Structures are given as C-alpha cells and as structure tokens.
Amino acid sequence: xIDDPRVEGGLAVKQFEVDDPSVILPPTNPGMPxxxxxxxYQVVTNGNTISVVIPLAFINNQTNFNFxxxxxxxxxxxxxxxxPMLGVYQVYEIMSENLSLPFQVQ
Length: 106
Fold this sequence. Notes:
mainly beta; two-stranded antiparallel ribbon; about 30% strand
C-alpha cells in the first residue's frame, strides 16, 4: 500500500509500468500491473488471534519484518486514469490504530 490522496481512504496498491523488466511478480499475482498477490491462504481466527500459514519460500525465506492489519473497502478502477487501479475508499479498522507496523512474524 502507498499513500494516495486521490481516494477517500487515502491508500492504494502500488502500480508499475507493464513493460518494466525489473518487476518480478509471484505466480499468484492476479494479472494486474500492481504489487499485489492473491495466493488464497486460509485465515484462521481464534478469539483475538488471526493466523495465516504462509510457506517461507513465498516470502523469500524472510521472517524479520513487521506488519499490521487493516479492514477496508477497496474498489477496482479500470476506466478513470485519474484514480488508482485499486484504491482504499474506506478504512474500517486498523489493528495497531495508527499503521505503525508493530506486529512481528512468529
């Protein structure tokens, strides 16, 4: 996600030029020119815990990063070049309350 003042929620998925040879996407990218993945991993909730099991190979065997969780309303745009292709139009909740990325992989 990147800051994007063009949409009400203020965020969008980062896009790239289709012919950019430096862009390497995972095989589960949905075929759109943006840094997005849709691998279909199962999300399990238990009380106030959310778990997602992701093979280390899919995250370049890295576990030393922080993350946050948000629930939002996103909208796909394919007709208005003044708007992002996938923008956040409403933020419902941010787990950390301020997108400070306080959570670590366990």
